[in-house]
Design brief:
This protein has 206 residues and is an alpha+beta fold. The chain folds into two domains: 2-76, Glutaredoxin (3-Layer(aba) Sandwich), CATH 3.40.30; 87-205, Up-down Bundle (Glutathione S-transferase Yfyf (Class Pi), Chain A, domain 2). 52% of the residues lie in helices and 6% in strands. The protein has a four-stranded mixed beta sheet. Helix 1 (10-22) packs parallel to helix 3, helix 1 runs antiparallel to helix 6 and helix 5 crosses helix 7 (192-205). 34% of the residues are buried. Residues 9-11, 38, 50-53, 65-66, 122, 125 line the site of glutathione (GSH).
């Protein structure tokens, strides 16, 4: 199998940290988003959605969603589980993955993609061009402020987001906090539980 990715981008980072933690080594090819290589003909033939990461299996199957790729790889490499170890934990990992995407990743992406001069007409990823809507950037800031409040409430003092075991959910929140720096945001200093938890996640990934 072969992984197409772009190391600096947040969704690829989620997968890279998952692979590193589990000690999985894959043949990897970088798609340079700074050169818009994800929109070029060669990559479009591999992943018509024009997004990274994409995992191409030996039988030609192409997987384009981080959470799906992680599930697949966890089945092949169950050691150091990151997708949950019990029925409840598995459900919590997926629930947090989805919730973080909805409340935080999308808010940050809306800010970035609807306000950056370098992303004019690239307000959404994918093969089609969409114009920026500045109001969505403003709404994104409000949504992100609210997300930090929700995450401060949820940040566990002991254990991890999905239960007793470190998981993809913790990796997602770590990447999310880093991604927020791209739009000059970060969890407010008053989010003491969240900061302490993020420090533990960073140490676990080190
Ligand atoms: N649903 C995909 C999202 C992948 C995605 O949106 N990746 C971004 C990079 S973080 C991308 O490829 N953007 C392409 C673009 O901006 O043109 C996943 O879960 O991996």
């Amino acid at each position: 199998m072969k992984l197409y990715t772009y190391d600096p981008a947040p969704n690829p980072q989620r997968l890279t940290l998952f692979l590193k933690y589990k000690g999985i080594d894959l043949e990897t090819h970088q798609i340079d988003m700074m050169q818009a290589e994800q929109l070029g003909e060669a990559y479009r033939a591999i992943n018509p959605a024009c997004t990274v990461p994409a995992l191409v299996l030996d039988d030609g199957t192409v997987m384009t969603e981080v959470v799906g790729i992680c599930h697949y790889l966890e089945s092949l490499h169950p050691e150091k589980p990151l997708m949950g170890t019990t029925a409840l934990e598995k459900a919590q990992v997926i629930s947090w993955d989805h919730k973080l995407f909805m409340i935080a990743f999308m808010a940050i992406a809306d800010i970035l993609r609807n306000s950056s001069p370098g992303m004019v007409n690239r307000a959404l990823p994918g093969p089609l061009d969409f114009p920026q809507i500045p109001e969505l950037a403003e709404r994104g800031r409000l949504r992100l402020e609210h997300a930090w409040e929700i995450l401060e409430e949820a940040a566990p003092a002991k254990g991890w987001l999905a239960g007793d075991h470190f998981s993809l959910a913790d990796i997602d929140l770590h990447v999310c906090a880093g991604f927020s720096g791209w739009v000059k945001s970060k969890p407010p200093e008053s989010c003491t539980k969240l900061h302490a938890y993020l420090g533990r996640v960073a140490a676990e990934l080190d």
